[in-house]
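thought: fold this chain, then report.
action: predict
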Amino acid sequence: MRCVLFTGGARSGKSMWAERYAARLGFPVVYLATAGIGDAEMGERVALHRARRPAEWGTVEAQRDPARALADIAHGTVVLLDCLTLWTSNVLLANEQTAEQELAAEVTALLGLARERDLTLIVVTNEVGMGIVPEYALGRLYRDVLGRAAQQIARSADEVYLVTAGIPVELKALMPDWARREEGAW
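observation:
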C-alpha cells in the first residue's frame, strides 16, 4: 500500500495536484467521491471536478463508508478519495454523538482495505484548523473530528502535501529526525 495525503485551504489547488499525482502513476484510477449534490452550486462544483478528470477513470460515489463502496476493487488500483472534508461532514451530520468514533472506524477500514488490496490511496482534505475557533459547538466538533481524522491518515501516509496558493510542499520530507523517530508515538 502507498498512501498520499493532500491538504490545504479552500481553492488551494489540492484536488488538482492530487489528480495530477494519480494520473502520473500509470495505473487504473478510481475516483472516490464523497460529495452529495444538495443544491445547484454544489452541482456546478461536482460538474467541474468531473470535467477535469480523464474519461477512463472510474468513479465510485460514497458519501459514507468508502471501504464498503470499494469492496470489490482490483489489487493495485489507484484510489483518489476527494474528500475527507465532506466525508467527515456526512458522518457528523448522520450522528453527532458518535461521529468521531464512527469516522475513525471508517478510516481504519479504508486503510485496511488499501493494505489488503495493495492500493495507492490518495486522500484530499481541507485544513480547517488554522482559522478562528468556530462560534458554535457543532463547528468546533467538526473542526476537531476532521483534524483527528486527517492525523490518522497522515500517520499512515508515505507523503503528505500541504498545498497553498497552488504550490504543493511535501511535509514529511521536512520533518526533523527527532519527529520521524517519534512519529509512531502519535
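thought: worth noting. The radius of gyration is 16 Å.
final: C-alpha cells above.
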